[in-house]
Design goal:
single chain; mainly alpha; 14 helices; about 80% helix; globular
């Protein structure tokens, strides 16, 4: 550093300002690189998720999260990836054992060695994500993105409890999810991800709940669910939001045993996600059936 008496005080101040400016530019550039790297990592995690590489997607979603960049999207993606890991472990490929009795599910859970750790990680992400969402909503109650993520995190929790774990719990989370997603769609009827999530509520309540429970849960409607997902696919959106709608339609059509239409959707998905072993196995089974 030059001594101020040698260069003159005005020149010294000017030099100091330039150094500070360069330092600020450097910090901004570093922050930009970190943000870009985080965004790239998160995008890679999304791609892994839709290629059915759930364990890798969960790990990368966590890697994309730092104290500075922790956001609701990372909590939602990681909890979704862990949920699908648990579904594969407890329900088999493509939900083969999804309709088994709750008592059988509990026995399967007891024998599942990795499940407790996965459930703990899932619960931690849902808890942290919901806490962050509620803090954000306290400052901005009508924020569309925050309302969606709160509803989706709630829905992930309900799916785990009612599905793979076979627990009859999560009703508070169910209503919060329903109200949050309805608020999003009231403000923005073309919110693709909210349409898909809300459609799943309609579909599951209609097809999985007894009549009395359906009434208590505000009713469901699988025809409306399918119509909503088809509508979501027609709305212009980002690549992964559109893919989520396509996967939802495929899953619903498979559940409805509409094999011709499900196969058409599966072939579209295979083009975008050629590494997805679930889609590939489905198409191989269909081709084998056709050749008989």
């Amino acid at each position: 550093m030059l001594h101020p008496l040698r260069v003159g005080l005005p020149h010294f101040h000017a030099l100091s300002l330039r150094v500070r400016a360069l330092s600020t530019i450097a910090l901004v550039a570093i922050a930009g690189v970190v943000a870009t790297a985080s965004t790239s990592t998160f995008t890679d995690a999304q791609r892994l998720f839709y290629n059915a590489r759930y364990e890798a997607a969960a790990a990368l979603a966590l890697d994309s999260r730092t104290a500075e960049t922790a956001d609701l999207a990372s909590y939602e993606l990681r909890s979704s990836a862990i949920l699908f890991q648990l579904k594969a472990l407890l329900e088999g490929p493509n939900g083969r054992d999804a309709d088994r009795k709750d008592t059988d599910k509990k026995e399967k859970l007891k024998a599942c060695v990795p499940c407790p750790e996965l459930i703990e990680a899932f619960s931690d992400d849902v808890r942290r994500g919901r806490a962050l969402a509620r803090t954000m909503l306290a400052a901005d109650p009508g924020d569309e993105s925050t309302l969606f993520f709160l509803g989706k995190l709630d829905l992930n929790y309900v799916w785990l409890q009612l599905g793979p774990l076979g627990h009859r719990t999560g009703w508070d989370e169910y209503w919060e999810a329903r109200h949050s997603l309805d608020a999003v769609l009231k403000a923005n009827p073309r919110h693709v991800r909210a349409l898909v999530a809300r459609a799943w509520i309609d579909y599951i309540v209609d097809t999985k709940m007894p009549w009395g429970t359906r009434w208590l849960l505000g009713g469901g409607n699988k025809k409306r669910a399918l119509a909503s997902v088809r509508q979501a696919i027609q709305i212009e959106s980002d690549f992964f939001s559109h893919s989520e709608a396509e996967f939802a339609l495929w899953n619903m059509l498979v559940r409805e045993r509409d094999i011709p239409q499900a196969t058409i959707v599966a072939r579209r998905l295979a083009l975008g996600f050629p590494e997805n072993h679930e889609v590939a196995a489905y198409l191989q089974a269909r081709d084998a059936t056709t050749r008989r």
